[in-house]
Amino acid sequence: MNTVKPESIALFCLTPGGVVLAKRLAAMLPVTCFTSEKLLEEGFIAFENGFANTAREAFANYSALIFIGATGIAVRVLAPLVNDKFCDPAVVVIDERAQHVISLLSGHAGGANALARYLAGMLGADPVITTATDVNDMAALDTLAFQLNARMSDFRSAVKIVNQMLVSNKRVGLWWDDELTQDVSHCDRRGFITVTDLNQLPELDALVCITLRTNLPDLPVPHWKLVPQRVVAGIGCRRDTPFPLLAALLARQLEAQQLDPLALKAIGSITLKKDEQGLIQLASCCRVPFETFTADALREHEHRFPASSFVRKTVGTGSVSGPAAWLLSHGKLLGETLREQGVTITLGVSH
């Protein structure tokens, strides 16, 4: 999944007119501008081993690429690299007179549609968007997932099916947990039919459920579960605690709270554990960041939790999992702390 960040946009221009437009854009947003040696100006970077080579290097290292020039040039240069719409960077093309801004690649997942609209707004140009859901003034399942920072089992297949149903005027429902109402209210839901009660469904062809829950009731229509990443886990453990034990205990703690494992957003611990292989492997397996906090930061909140004098003597604070979860969730904890086999796990929810 590729998320466009303004600070990682590479811009390419091949003509004097392109350089003029690039300077105009560079004054409005942070971009790295590339051009040829003969057109080089202050603030620009010269192509290294030619335009094509530089563009292909940028494709692998930037989350968005802007080409000022002909669409065909961008297509020919990038064609061998195009691989996956959920991983490829956003690619946008602008004509040098700034009349059109074309979303060329990764419109939803990479954010090219949003970037094209943003650039067109700055330039007074026409955004050219061709994705079916957008041209039919409808939301898209993949866009909804990215807006919610949510995950889903078999995401690719679900996106293909649900988006096709939306543009085919099928009745696709959208239901969400009450605690996620504020999150969902900011999302694009055009084309979806709002469902308020899973026990009293309107006539539907399919249903998307936005939830942190492990299980849903039996539903009479094809349905998919979209799981926002909101749950954090503070973990304390002995040195060299094996990964299988950590994984099993975390799974049990999530199950005790009836939380889908896909809802996990981050794992946290003390800085002394930053090289703890079991925790590193756990975060990697769950595809979430592993964040650590200093003993001083954790100690500020240890009064909120049962403290151990042995732990305090060993690591500098009397409690690790609770304060770590507190910091990750801004004080919104879930359930009781698990304590077993030298491992402590405290869950929290972060919005």
Automatic annotation (TrEMBL):
GO MF annotation, one: cobalt-precorrin-5A acetaldehyde-lyase activity
Entry keyword annotation includes Transferase: no
Listed Pfam families: CbiG_C (PF01890), CbiG_mid (PF11761), CbiG_N (PF11760)
E.C. no: 3.7.1.12
Start and end residues of each CobE/GbiG C-terminal domain: 231-347
The Cobalamin biosynthesis central region domain, residue ranges: 140-217
Domain Cobalamin synthesis G N-terminal: 54-134
Entry keyword set: Hydrolase
GO terms under biological process: cobalamin biosynthetic process
Lipid biosynthesis found in the keyword field: no
Protein name: Cobalt-precorrin 5A hydrolase
